[in-house]
Amino acid sequence: MKNSYSKTRPFSLIAREYFGYLGKHLPHQCASDEFYFLPRSEAAVQHLSRLDDLTPGKIEDHIRHIRDLLSQLSQEDCDDLEDYIDRLLLAQSMESFIREFDDAEVWRNDPTLYVKIPLFATDHIISQRHISPEQIKPDLLNLFARIPSFLSLATDSLRSPPEIFLQVAVDMIRDALDFYNRDVRSFIEETMGRDRELLAKNKEVLDACERYKKDLLQLSPRGSFAIGEDGLKKILTASLSYHRSPGEILEIARYGYHKTLENIRALAKKIDSNKTWDIIINEQLPSVSSEAGSIHLYEREVQNLRRFFYSQDIITIPCGEKVAVLKTPPYLESLRATASYKAPLTGDAKASGVFYITPGKEDLQMISSHCPYLSAHETYPGHHILDHIRIHHPNPIRRQIESPLFYEGWACYSEQLLDEFGYIHDPRQKLVQLQRQLWRCIRAILDVELQREKMTLAEAEKEIHILGFSSKRARRQIRRFCLTPGYQLCYFMGTYEIIRLREKFSPQIGIKVFHDTLLDGGEIPFHLAEKRLEARFTKKEKTNENN
Fold first, then answer.
1. Residue 273 and residue 295 in one domain
2. ∠59-61-63 over CA atoms, to 5°?
3. Cα(403)–Cα(485) distance, rounded to whole angstroms?
4. Are 533 and 526 in contact (CB under 8 A)?
5. Residue 312 carries which DSSP code?
6. Domain carrying residue 147
7. Based on the domain organization, do 233 and 204 belong to the same domain?
8. Per-residue model confidence as pLDDT tens digits over 404-450
9. Please, are residues 349 and 392 in contact by the beta-carbon 8 Å criterion?
10. Is 201 part of any domain?
11. Mean pLDDT on 505-518
12. Confidence of residue 547 (pLDDT cuts 50, 70, 90)
């Protein structure tokens, strides 16, 4: 294996220093999958009682330090495939950090960053039900004392962020005010015995959030959020280690869209030749009429999926995994879609995963009809299983580095397994899965076209609305797309690459070996997953020859 990364000092020490440094100085960005450009550092677990260090001088130190570590990964020949993958993953993670903080200057351009971090920090502290109030109080007081200056730092650091970023940040601040005024206050009253000192400090946080909202409204924004084709290429190569160009991705996604549209129309014709597919889907009445009913519906579905995939011989489900189904906390509603998954912290292997549901009144029909696929995407065998495997991986590099291309690709691919292996029988339900595939295709198209400024926000919202989303949810989705360039294409392209590899290798090694080999390699770039599968195929061929 040529052109890999080697070391000027022990590679394991460079890796340990990298994960440890970021976990110490940027603990909440390293603990949450909301910040996909950073590793899931195990060291972050030790520092979650404080906020990330985003002062300009410190950010310069962070960039300088990571650049220095990257420079120590000199290039030379490497013959071991797994060692090659580790070194490339580490270098890619460092380059992704540098792109985000030095090139894109996220700390100057994204006002939502300064809202997310205090919210995640607060939620982490008040969610520790196994810790006594006496232990919680000092951490909560310390955090509350730091949040006002952290938000003031944001105002000083931001430099003409895109207008749409400001709009999302203002929405998030409103959610944060609701969170501190309702959820946090209730926690203090019920769990902390109405502690006056905590209530007073919580009021100071509320006041600081109000000031930050006013400061954001006074900033002079720039109009465009787009990073252009060159910026998108850099994300693809530096952050995702993906070598397809934006143009190639667009071509593949457009073909996928038209092919899926043909399939959905053909299936709809079989169901009822007198009606179009969208009418047939909308005829499915919701089986739930309340938020509580939605949660119960998903709890049952998750258990059914768990039993189904444990009984199938298509993938090895790890032992000891646990997942809870909960309503999305108010402060996350601006960030998350209808459903999302929160993995246990890396380094806290005993914790449960959380499957969040946001059952809005206008989406009860979608909440019901999409339940099997959403549940598979987030839990079995999707995000929950993938994260459980990652968190328990014996290799510290694979344990602490994620890839949104692999992560979202596997979750979308998981949905398709429901139809393929007989979990779903109703053709109307299968129509929903095809609709979901259409969404992934259009999101990849919009991701590229919005960042290349080939499409307006209004045009993008219309494309989402046509596929079944309410106008409100379509608008919210497009805003999220703008904040995370390069992420939305990961759903479709990740699935595309998994299916491509499966078609190439599963006929020789079998579907279960394919799945297990794919997952036990960690969330690595697909061209490296292909090399691991080739090695497995070669090993099997030699074994067959010897027998």
1. no
2. 70
3. 14
4. no
5. -
6. 113-218
7. no
8. 999 999 999 999 999 999 999 999 999 999 999 999 999 999 999 99
9. yes
10. yes
11. 96
12. low
- Answer whether the bond into residue 485 is a cis peptide, omega within 30°: no
pLDDT at 545 > cutoff 60: no
Sequence-distant (6+) residues with CB within 8 A of 9 are 72
75-76 and 4-5 beta bridge pairing: antiparallel
Q: Is 211 helix (H, G, I), strand (E, B) or coil?
A: helix
277 and 289 belong to one structural domain = no
- Which token pair is 524? 């690595």
Count of structural domains, the chain: 4
Mean pLDDT of the chain: 91
Say if residue 460 is in the same domain as residue 533: yes
Regarding whether 473 and 345 lie in a shared domain, the answer is: no
88/134 same-domain check:
no
Task: Give 537's Cβ-side CA count (13 Å radius).
Answer: 18
Instruction: Give the lowest-confidence range in 211-215, 274-278, 382-386, 536-540.
Output: 536-540
Whether 137 and 176 share a structural domain? yes
pTM: 0.94
Lookup: tokens for 384:
């929950």
Among 179, 198, 218, residue at a domain's last position: 218
Same domain flag for 10 and 92: yes
Q: What does the alpha-carbon distance between residue 283 and residue 278 come to, in Å, rounded to a whole number?
A: 9
